[in-house]
Amino acid sequence: MSDTTTLPPLTAKDFSTDQEVRWCPGCGDYSILAQVQKVMPTLGIPRENIVIISGIGCSSRFPYYMNTYGMHSIHGRATAVASGLKASRPELSVWIVTGDGDSLSIGGNHTIHLLRRNFDVNILLFNNQIYGLTKGQYSPTSEKNKVTKSTPFGSIDHPFNPLALALGADATFVARTMDRDPKHLQSMLLRTNQHHGASFLEIYQNCNIFNDGAFEIFTEKGSKAQETLFLEQGKPFLFGPGNTKGIKLDGFTPRVVNLEDGHSADDLWIHDEHDIYKAQILVRIFDDPKIEGHLPRPFGVFYQTDRPCYEDVMAMQLEDAKARKKGDLDKLLRGNEVWVIQ
Amino acid sequence: MIRKQEVLQDVVIKFAGDSGDGMQLTGTQFTNNTALLGIDLSTFPDFPAEIRAPQGTLPGVSGYQLRFSSDRVFTPGDACDVLVAMNAAALKTNLTALKKGGKIIANVDGFDSKNLRLANYPEGENPLENGSLDNYEVIKMDVTKMTREALKEFTMGMKEKDRAKNMFVLGFLYWMYGRDMENTITFLKEKFGKKPEIFESNLRVLQAGYNFGDTTETFTTTYKVEKAKMLAGSYRSIMGNQALAYGLIAASQKSGLPMFLGSYPITPASDILHELSRHKNFGIRTFQAEDEIAAITSSIGAAYGGALGVTTTSGPGMALKAEAMGLAVMLEIPLLIVDVQRGGPSTGLPTKTEQSDLLQAYYGRNGECPMPVISASTPGDCFDVAYEAVRLAVTHMTPVILLSDGYIANGAEPWRFPSSNDLQPIHVKFKTELGHGEEKLQPYLRDEKLARPWAIPGTAGLEHRIGGLEKQNITGNVSYEPENHQLMVKIRQEKVDKIAEYIPEQKIDNGPDKGKLLVLGWGSTYGAIKSAVAELVAQGQSVAHAHLRYVRPFPKNLGEIINGFEKVLIPEINNGQLIKIIRDVYFVDAKGYNKIMGVPITKGELVEEIKKHL
Lengths: 342, 614
Ligand code: SF4
Prior knowledge:
Number of helices of chain B: 20
Number of strands of chain B: 23
CATH topology of the largest domain in chain B: Rossmann fold
CATH architecture of the largest domain in chain A: 3-Layer(aba) Sandwich
Oligomer: heterodimer
Helix content of chain A: 25-40%
Strand order of the largest sheet of chain A: 2-1-3-4-6-5-11-7
Number of domains of chain B: 3
Strand content of chain A: 15-25%
CATH class of the largest domain in chain A: Alpha Beta
Structural class of chain B: alpha/beta
CATH architecture of the largest domain in chain B: 3-Layer(aba) Sandwich
Bound molecules: iron/sulfur cluster
Largest sheet of chain A: 8 strands, mixed
Number of domains of chain A: 2
Number of helices of chain A: 11
Structural class of chain A: alpha/beta
Number of strands of chain A: 12
Helix content of chain B: 25-40%
Radius of gyration of chain B: 27 Å
Order of helices and strands of chain A: HEEHEHHEHEHEHHEEEEHEHHE
Shape of chain B: globular
């Protein structure tokens, strides 16, 4: 008799918990949670092998709502907790859920070091450009001059460009998506999971309480086509209503061209997500949409490359060392210079 | 020629020179050589904070004190019999620690006008010439000249040649104490095996030093120290940090838990990281983190995944780890935090010893955040304490703080090493499935020790979430309920207090069970207190010594012991820390003896202090 009962495939429901979701009604986090719960069952990873680690902030409540293993750690340290976990348990699928304050301010140090070490983990950075949980102070991604509770006369901080930072830290996978585009968000989650190495996915997330509409211009129907550029491997940079506009590289400078003005799609920048030089330019397309002549904001996979993962190399060193000479505790304790007292 | 050999019982040698002179290596070699003869010993390396302070200056002096004896010894000695002074600064900084009539082995080349000036001797004064050392026996040697002479056929540069100077001194001391040099020759071979010229030159100079003693007619006496009467068994020499690392490896092996060390380099704890990094063949993962916070939080991540999570640091690093320790207390996962204490506050005295992190270990976290604290008292004891700390952490599901300090971390002593079979097994039980009637995991359901289950990722059916927010009792769900918080605070405290039921009772180390004065210590003051009390007990005084390994919780019977004495004296290398806790817990009017100079308490001063209370 065979007792190999095939379990029914998991569904999004299997990934939800009995904990009441406590985000503000209308918060962009709901959509992200829904897409993650939808994508998880399709990954072919046993639920018990998935671990979600978060820091502190609104987004960091995430693990409580996912029926996997999870840890809601302390402010800024999710990346470091995840590093230790992944180093010692490489077989686990480790996801880090963090916010702009958590991973770029208090935890900025761990974020860049995780990226350079290239642990095979997935960082979901919910960027809402504000401190939500502490009720509305500016964050390291808030735009200059922003008026918040802690900047009544406008912020004088220059904001981070998260993807440029990640690339600067030699991240091997850098991508951007948004809460309001479920399909794109799902496809980016899939790509994030596929990448063997540290994946950095920035998700524009609307905080409708303290920073409502921060990304409206990119997410709402009326302006989306004009203001966004969706990257696809091997495809030209086309955007605008009816894809009538494109971006061309003029030397090292990206310029908007109008296809209706006689420019051909063949002249445009063709996306190659493995080209580090072009990726450096691409992440710098970060214009303020209020400024005349600005470039559209790119979404999608900016850059992907393969580089050995920290935990794999670490495991290899251990295996090599064991193969050369297996540890013998008694030999170790004895050492080389022993004397005996009768 | 005929020479006499004198038998001595107890010798203290101090090797002192510029930090580039290789005095630590010379000291370690002589120590190992001594240990191999079954002579008891204790060492105290003392180095400057700067890696290479300006050559020849007073702050640049590096010292290594070694005491060896045919009797048992527990301290590196209060004063020296022999001072090796490689330069004028070394003489100046160490002369006060030399006994009257003691020997000075002086490298005359280190007393030229430049060195004298750097050591702040008045213009034209050379202590080797002006009669100021008449109360000592001065042996002058031109080490540099003789080293160069021994290497005249070698083609290497003068600077390279001069680097072997310390070998000359070592060779000479080997001759003086009637030693054979086999261990050092083997050491040099291993160290310089791939550079035959360097090996040859060091060997040549070592032999030249030996021959210098042997052939120079002015030296008429060699000395011998007999074997000490120690417990039967196999011994090796060990330093505290090394023993601590071995204790962790042993605990990892005996518990079956793969070890993960998250650490950030810091003096004087770094050697534990170095040592553990060498032993990958025991499955040990060492992670040099980007900072102290990542060091501990990565260890928490590893422990959450079922590894033996360890982080090692010193005082400033402890301060940075405080918040994460709170997380570990809330998560109730096993974790070991090792603090090799040094002089503080702030950067303080990085290379000097102090016991000033006890209150930090006890109280230095936000909220009600109790953690067990355990301390090591000698270099060899670091092994047992590390092993015990792991046992407490994994069987009681709690982070544990282990306190060592710079003195024992770098000090060496003979160590009767255990065989792996003699080590108590450490039983670890991961939760593998839901209990009877359990629908989902109750992560904060406790056993009789109040320990919660260790359910690690990868275990199907036990998926659960934990975190730093207050937990609801049993379910582990987030809870802000007032009654629940009070309950959980009390439970976490009780869990730590309960450990007292699982640790040995406190013993009196020496002296009567009841009497006039109890000298109560913890950590590295062990040797000084033991020696001082032993002397006074031998004189028939009513004094006893008890030394704490478990500082939190205290052993159950500690109150009883304390009550058996009229007075309690607590010597500490801090401004009075254990004393505060003892007064708080036992309402006794304990008196402190506090030395806060970055150096250990000596036996002599402690004897004087104890007498005042008798
Ligand atoms: S404060 Fe903002 S980010 Fe936080 S839950 Fe509410 S809407 Fe979402």
